[in-house]
Design a protein that fits this description.
mainly beta; Thrombin, subunit H; Methylamine Dehydrogenase, Chain H; 3 domains; 6-stranded antiparallel sheet
């Protein structure tokens, strides 16, 4: 299982290594074949479409009725990272050293805009307004205006290889996950930077809590909560830890969209729900040796989609008074 999302109408969708989507419709799930190889990246759009990138080099938009449109195809490149703007019109991916943006709406599909880099383009993220594109690469992050190819990007530098990138929901901060088992961040306004280090493993998953007040990351036996409240945000602050310090490494995290809770999937297949502000935790699933690889909450937080590397998938439903 390479990813999971909920569409705006609450339909759970899982991405599989065989190139297919599993739509968890009731009463019976159904499959839609998308890619010739594995699905490597997955995102949803506000109109209910599903966007996927694969090791076949294709970026494809799929409607839940099965209709498909290839938005971009790279020659001999994998599409490992994708991003969708808040309004769903602009879609970005990485292919080799290029970041690529296409604008796709009901009327037209724009020619792809290429944003070249001197090293492999890794993670991509749109700012909250969908106007700027952040691209992680060796040596930092480049910020591009998504509407134009002819420009010199703003560079937010830091030595090392940056593999993932995200904006804070208020647009004030950039965060990257690095090859060196650490996070790096910048305050966008003045490029003040900060390091979040000491992780025993690479940070493969990051998720923002309600209103961007905190960020939870993987990379340790416990979920790590970083506060972004106040003028200084996380600068000069240490992370809070939630969960069992003796547990296997957390492989994927998902912050609840409404409450100060977070789901944490572990490398042994166990699943834990913890308080982001507090100490209580609840084990939702015990381990079966296959790592949890996909987590997603529905928009209202009543349901949680979970998938693991051995193909296990489930949708958990919570009573609101229990959250």
């Amino acid at each position: 299982m390479s990813g999971a999302i909920f569409t705006p109408d609450g339909t759970p969708v899982f991405a599989l290594g065989d190139g297919s989507l599993r739509i968890a419709d009731r009463p019976a799930p159904r499959a839609i074949q998308i890619h010739r190889g594995a699905i490597l990246s997955l995102a949803g759009t506000p109109d209910g479409a599903v966007v996927t990138g694969g090791d076949c080099g294709a970026l494809i938009r799929t409607q839940l009725d099965g209709a498909q449109e290839t938005l971009f195809r790279a020659q001999d490149r994998w599409i490992e990272n994708i991003a969708v703007s808040a309004d769903g019109r602009a879609l970005a991916c990485t292919a080799g050293r290029d970041a690529v943006v296409v604008v796709a709406d009901a009327k037209r599909l724009s020619p792809p805009r290429h944003f070249p880099h001197t090293s492999t383009a890794a993670g991509v993220a749109f700012d909250p307004k969908g106007k700027r594109l952040a691209v992680a690469h060796y040596g930092g992050v480049s910020l591009w205006w998504a509407s134009s190819e002819s420009q010199t990007p703003a560079l937010y530098p830091w030595r090392g290889s940056h593999l993932q990138v995200c904006y804070s929901p208020d647009g004030r901060y950039l965060l990257t996950a690095m090859q060196e088992n650490s996070l790096h961040g910048w305050r966008i306004a003045d490029k003040a930077h900060f390091q979040m280090s000491g992780f025993p493993a690479k940070i493969k998953s990051m998720s923002w809590g309600p209103k961007g007040r905190w960020l939870i990351t993987s990379g340790a036996s416990q979920g790590l909560i970083w506060s972004f409240e106040g003028k200084q945000g996380p600068i000069g602050r240490d992370a809070r830890e939630i969960g069992d310090p003796e547990a296997p490494i957390v492989s994927v995290v998902a912050a609840h969209p409404v409450h100060n809770l977070a789901a944490m999937g572990h490398a042994d297949g166990s699943l834990v729900l913890g308080q982001a502000i507090g100490a209580e935790t609840a084990v939702l699933r015990t381990g079966d040796s296959a790592a949890i690889s996909a987590l997603a909450w529905s928009a209202n937080g009543d349901r949680l989609a979970v998938g693991s590397q051995n193909g296990f998938a489930a949708v958990l439903t919570f009573k609101r008074e229990a959250l």
